[in-house]
Amino acid sequence: MNVSKLKTILLASGATFMAITMIFLPEESFKASIRGLKMWWEIVFPSLFPFFVIAELLIGFGVVRFIGTLLEPLMRPLFKVPGVGGFPWAMGMATGFPAGAKLTARLRQEKQLTKIEAERLVSFTNASSPLFIFGAVSVGFFHNPRLGIILALTHYLGNFCVGLMMRFYGKDGKDHKMIKEQKRTSSVFNIRQALSALHQTRMKNKQPIGKLLGDAVISSIHTLLMIGGFIILFSVLNKLLLLLNITHILASFFVILLSVFQLPIELSIPAIAGIFEITLGSQLTSELANATLMQKTIIVSFILGFSGLSVQAQVASILAETDIDFKPFFVARIFQGIFAAFFTFLLWKPIATKFQLESTQTTAPVFLQQHDLWWHETVQYFEEIGPIITILSLICYIFIYIKRMSSPV
After folding, report:
1. Angle at the Cα of 155 from the Cα atoms of 140 and 254, rounded to 5 degrees
2. Contact 39, 236 (CB under 8 A)
3. Are 240 and 22 in contact (CB under 8 A)?
4. 405 exposure class (CB count in 10 Å sphere: 0-12, 13-18, 19+)
5. How many helices (H) and strands (E) are present in the chain, helices listed first?
6. pLDDT per residue as tens digits for the range 135-172
7. Which of 234, 263, 279 is nearest to 39 (CA)?
8. Closest Cα partner for 137 from 43, 231, 32?
9. pTM above 0.85?
10. Any transmembrane segments, and where (predicted)?
11. Among candidates 159, 164, 157, which has minimal Cα distance to 74?
């Protein structure tokens, strides 16, 4: 039997097994799907949708090309990617995954990146957003907003290290003309050249503003609906694996690795759950009693860096529309998880002491208490207004879609 046939049998058997399991465990499956939907409904959609639309408009109007020309002297020496890579990198950190992948794929479709450059760039432009790190993980699971300080610092440090590492990936053997042009303009910051690039890009795009806006809304919501589907699917999948004790079986192999690093073996189940889906893994880690806060933070840092198979499936779906290979992204996620966990161990003592991570709110300085309160209020705000933004955006999408379908071709 060849590998292709074996793969077909395994995939078909796995899908059938999960379908049967969902039939026999309908209540647990329903609760898990509601949990995934709630996260998408309240946090993911309202936090990503505005950024996705604005990003599409910025690309169409040539602003990204303008930023790219300015950032060329920074991005090229550091990460061996053109200056336009600075835009998805910044947006990826601000809005969270899979924004970096979507923008990188978009720039590749616009021919502003070579295939190798796009594979380098996508490897370090996908990160957890500050809202997710501080809001969902630190406030929601650990009830300690200050923990987000070290989680965010180590997460973005790991992200930066991955970027430096991936500059050595691949050889720029193709698109010589594009690379030569990029290197020719990468020596100094040139505002005149950046303005010229902005104008040229705008002139090439003959679409009216209304058409650009409509395309941006439709493209963004298509992507967000896909993201929502993956979040719900992996939420159910992870819960079923946990109920069927499959997670426990997989965790038994993880025990050896934890023992090497002198971490409690009880962390193996949350770690395996986090490999599938970051929210459940982070939640299970936070609820563990037989581990110190530092040990739990190390595991959560690894989970955030690895991003979970749920996020990776979202990225794979986005990259499938281009010629960008998924493998470099997957390898980079493993390294980012390792880097983030290492930095957490290295920086824990000074940061925990300075920001009193293990102190109660009553013993913390006033500025830290205000920091804690701000993040609590931010999470509450998203829970209240997030569903409203989601509903209004979907109504807008339906209106534009119907209008376009009814218009003559």
Report:
1. 80
2. no
3. yes
4. exposed
5. 19, 0
6. 878 888 888 888 989 999 999 999 999 999 998 988 76
7. 279
8. 43
9. no
10. 6-25, 45-67, 79-100, 121-142, 148-170, 212-234, 240-260, 298-318, 330-348, 385-402
11. 164
